[in-house]
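Q: A reviewer asked whether we had any structural model of the full assembly, not just the individual parts. We don't, so I'm hoping you can provide one. Inputs are below.
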Amino acid sequence: MTSRTPPAGLIFALPALLWVGLFFLVPVLIMVGYSLHPLDQSGAPGPLSLADYTAFFAEPAYVQALINSVITTLIVVAISTCLAYPFAWCIACIVPKKYQRLALLAAILPFWTSYVVRSYAWLLALSPVGAVNKALLALHLIGHPLMFAYNPQATEFGFIHFFLMLNTLTIYASLTQINPRYELAARDLGASAWRSFVTITLPLSIPGVAVGAFLTIVLCIGDYVTPQILGGFRELLLPQLIMMQIQRQLDLPMASAMSLLLTVLVALAYVALQRWLRMARL
Amino acid sequence: MMARLSARTMTAAAYMAVCYAFIFIPVGVLVLFSFQSGDLPVPPLHGLSLRWYASAFNDGRLVDAFTNSIVVGSVSSGLSVMIGFMAAFGLARYDIPGKAVMRAVIMLPLAVSYLLVGMGLLVSSSALGLGPSLVTVIIGHVVINMPLAFAICQAQLGEHQRRIESAARDLGAGTFRVVFEITAPMIAPALVAAFCLCFTLSWDEFLIAYLNTRFDVTLPVVIWDLLRGGLNPETNAAGSFIFLVSISVMAIVELFLRRGRRS
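A: Here is a predicted structure for the entire assembly that you could use as a starting point for your response.
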C-alpha cells in the first residue's frame, strides 16, 4: 500500500457529487421552496404557506388524478409482472443456453423504438381504422370496428407493453443467477418439478421481481407521454395535471407541489420494496 | 415422459410466441406503414414507397432537431462517462469516509422520475431568470445518465486492474497517468458501452427536453409536435429512422461487451 490519502479519492468523486448536488438536489430544494410560496391573485409568489398542498387535497379532481395514477401503476405492475415472469422463465429454463441471449435481445428490441413513437405506434394499431381492428374484422371476430384507443385501458395497454420487456429483463437476470444445483437437490430428494419451483426458484427470484416492480413504478407513475397520447381526456393522471399547471395555469408552485407528492409516492414504494431491493445484485 | 416433456415445451413455445407477437406489434405496424405509398399509415397498404422518408429528410424542423439530438446526446454522454468513470475510480481505489453515502447520492437520480429532474431544472432556471435552452437539457441528461455510467464502470474495476495499476505506480507513473493511460484503456469496452447506452437514452428522452426547450428542440419533441397533426406516414418514417439509429448503437454495445467478456 502506497500512501493513499483520502483527498485524492475525493477529488475523483467530486465532479459527480457536485453535478448531482448542483443540478439535482439543489433544484429539488428550490422546488420545495416554490411549492411553499403559492401564487397570490396577481400571479406573484406569496408568503410562506402550505396552501398549495391543502388546495391539492381539497380539489376532488386532483385527488382523483392521484388515485388514478396509483391504480394505473398498480395494475400495470401486477399485469406486466405476471406476463413477464413466465416469459423470462421460458427464456431462462426452456430455450437452449446457446440461443438465450438472442431470445432475450429479441424480447427487448422494441425497447429501442423512441418512447414517443412507441405510443404513437400503438395508436396506429388500435385506432378504429388501424391494423388490429382490420385484422379482427377480416377474421369475423367483430362485426364493426371497436374503439380501443383514447381510454384508460389503452394507457394501461401501452404501459404493459413497455414494462413487459423491462420486467422480462430483470426477472431473467435474477433467474439465471440461481444456482441450478439447488433445484437439482430438491428434485433428488423427491420434490416434484412444480414443488421445487415454488419452494426454491420462485423465492430466490423475488429480488429480480422487486427491482422490475420498482423501476416500473418509478417510470410509470411519472410518465406523461403514454396517457397523453393513448388515454384520452376523461380520466387524467397526475403527470398530465402537472403539465397543465405548467402550460395553461402557468402555476409553477402548484406544479412543484404536485411533482413532490408524486416523488413521495415513489419513495413509499421504495420503502415497501426495500427488503428485496437490497438483496438484488443485478 | 417424452410426451409430457414435449407438451411442456409446446406450451412454453406457444406462450413465447404470443409474447413476441405482442412485443413486436407496434414496431411492425410502425415500420411497415412507413413504406406506405398512400396518404395514411393504416391498412390497406397501397404499395411500397420511400416517399415519406424523402419527405422526412426534407423536413427542415426534423433535420435541425436531428442535429440537436446528436449534439445533446454526444455531449451529455461524453460528460456522463467521464464524470461517472472518475467517481467510480475514486470510490473503488481510495478509502474515503462516507463512501456509502457518496455512492447513494450519485445513484439517487436513477430512483426518481424524469419528471422530477425536468421540473427541478425548469423551476431553477426560471428562478435564475434563464430561458429554456439545450444546455439545460444536456445538464439534465447528465443527471440521469451519469449514475448509469458510474454503475457500469464500478462493475468493471476489479482486482485484476488494481494489480496492474499498482505495477504502473511502482514503475513511477503518477495518479493521473495511471487513470488515463492504464485504467481507462483497460476498461475501454465498458466505457464505449456506457457511452452508447447513455447516448440512446438521451437520444430518446422526451420529458426533460420538452420542459426545458422552446425553439431549439430535440427529435422526440419535434415528433411530439408532429403527432398533433394526426396520423401521418412521415411520423412513421422518422420513427423508424430513430429506431434504426438506436439499434445500430446498441449493436455496437453488444459487440464491445462481447469483446470485453472475451478478453
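A: Points you may want to mention in the reply: Chain B has twelve helices and no strands. Chain B has one domain: 60-262.
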